Amino acid sequence: MIFRLFVCLLVTSALFFASAAETKQAKKATCRFAKEYSCKDFQSAYNVDQYLKNVIHWESKFAQPGVGYDPASGYTYDGHPLNYQTGELYGEPHTFSASSKESIHMAIVALALDGNVLALQYVGGRDSLIKLLTLKMKGYSQFNQDYPGFGCYTPWVGFNQTAGTFVPMADWMNRVPGLDNGEWFWSLFAIADMLEEQSKADASLTSLAAQYRGVVNCQISAAKTIFYRGDGVVSDVVSIVDNKAAPTPENYFVQPTTGRLNDPYEGETMTQILYLLSDFATEEERQLLWDQKRAMLQSVEYEIPLSKARNALLSDPALEKLLKEQGNTITVQRGFWFSTHEQWKALLLPYVNNPDLVDVHRLFYNAEKARVWDAAVNQQPGLLASINDVTNGSQDIPDYASACGVAEIAFQPIARRDIMTPYGAFGLFLFDQPNALCWYNNMLQGPRMQSAFGSTEAINRNGTEISPLTTWDSKQTTVLAMLGGIGRLTQRALKKIPDETYGDKYQRFVHIVKSEYGRVFPSDSIKGDHIPLVPPQNGIPQDQLSDWDLKC
Questions:
Q1: Nearest to 274 by CA among 248, 292, 256
Q2: Which residue(s) pair with 158 in the sheet?
Q3: Which of these, 518, 537, 529, 514, lies nearest to 330 by C-alpha position?
Q4: Helix-then-strand count for the chain, H and E
């Protein structure tokens, strides 16, 4: 019944677009295709398909050796600067990275391995896919051989161009992060499972499958030793006594300033490794992992303004009547900043589009409703997320702007609401592609927001400044979401692992997610199912910053 309601809401939300979408004629894609589309075009399945093919074509230009990843080891770079004046690549790639970046690349690789047509287009076909998997495994294996103390996880890394390897950055030689590695693990977990399945019919994959399974098993074995502090406490960063020594409890310690991964956001990816796959003496101790997180899992309601002076969308009488008669509140999980990146776990594990977790799906969908309503009510032509700051023409990024989001439904104060980033739409892609494309495309229509390497990092709402950069976080999270994420793949893999209490690890996952969310969000307490998504109410100004003169 709930999913039928979702379908009805999707139809209702479409009423906010112009009625009939014209089919775009197929033609050779240019890198500046956003201005060829309007929101109404995305009501055509054909147009959506053509648009996604365009996105994949140009975003894949970023995911190339020497641009988005190291050609010697296969490990992802953080990103690559763009020339502020021309849109061409500028200088050298960011030769530093973390496993969170690697998680995105490998999740898209996992979808390609599963046969997703667009993901295969992204990696250049099946042969290129296997070559890439082989190259990355070479890099992983060398790092694990050189630095066994990291337990097959990685710190923030740099690149030894002479040796063709990636190595710990100077200030990460003896430290390892939990959050980034939790994200990376689930991409590897999906890949290992599929390689094993496919090797049954293709013996040429047997060795590669064994190598990926070896890395995954190594990470499972080391997770509790490295990141678990007892009493349910999971550390966000752990110090290592000797990075050349094999994992033992004595080899790890935490600094007095070390934080905890007690959040219900992307840090939960590490908690799920420990809860689902590590050994604990009792179920009571295993449950402590979640007891430690409960303080931050909070319900809050986003209230849509009912004053026409505050909310121009109420000029639509039907919408005004709907909100006043059926309610104007949307129940959401309180965000840290309510930045889109906090939904990263939904890209990797089966939290949404899952009939076993209907209420969690409703709640996460509500987050995207609140996000777009907040933007539309405030005449924001794009969506907010933590991002590299915009500049006034300098190639130097002034800072990373973390505190971007929605103050009314966040724990932390919001410092910036003037920066918009295309990846702010990635959460919406998991629920409603036409509406997500409407918001995403509206941001890409801004000046200098598309180049021969796909979308640009960010733009301010006045259209006067951009962030001249391309990174995995700001670009490829959205690509991964467009492709549906890998929740279905990790679900399939978890079902294959027996569990003494719940039958299999997937059922254990369902149990804990349903239990913890159900405590705070009983089904009948979640408000907002009747509230539709809304499109942008304005565009980014086009007359403040000249566009790039690109021949692509």
A1: 292
A2: 96, 167
A3: 529
A4: 17, 21
pTM of the model: 0.95
Tens of pLDDT, residue by residue over 515-534, are 999 999 999 999 999 999 99
How many CB atoms are located within 10 Å of the residue 547 CB? 14
pLDDT band at 6; cut points 50, 70, 90: very low
Token readout for 482 is 């467009």
Name the token pair of 478: 């959205």
Tokens (6 digits) for 88: 């061409």
The answer to whether 399 and 392 have CB atoms below 8 angstroms apart is no
Q: Which of 443, 441, 430, 340 is nearest to 52 (CA)?
A: 441
If one counts every other C-beta atom within 10 angstroms of the C-beta of residue 400, the result is 10
Integer Cα distance of 313 and 437 in angstroms: 20
The mean per-residue pLDDT over the stretch 431-450 comes to 98
Task: Report the distance separating Cα 112 and Cα 106, nearest Å.
Answer: 10
**Parallel, antiparallel, or unpaired for β 329-333 and 387-388?**
unpaired
Residues 214 and 222: their CA atoms lie apart, in Å, by 12
Do 385 and 343 meet the contact criterion of CB atoms below 8 Å apart?
no
Give the end-to-end CA distance of the chain in Å, rounded to a whole number. Answer: 47
Beta carbons within 8 Å of 14's beta carbon, 6+ residues apart:
43, 434
pLDDT in tens, 498-519: 999 999 999 999 999 999 999 9
Concatenate the DSSP letters of all residues of 419-478 into one string: EE-GGGGHHHHTT-HHHHHHHHHHHHTSTT-EETTEE-SEEETTSS-EE-EEEHHHHHHH
> Which positions ≥6 away from 32 have C-beta within 8 Å?
450, 547, 550, 552
Nearest to 96 by CA among 138, 157, 142: 157
In this prediction, residue 257 carries a pLDDT of 87
Reported as a single tens digit per residue, the pLDDT across 92-126 is 999 999 999 999 999 999 999 999 999 999 999 99
Residue with tokens 């149990």: 511
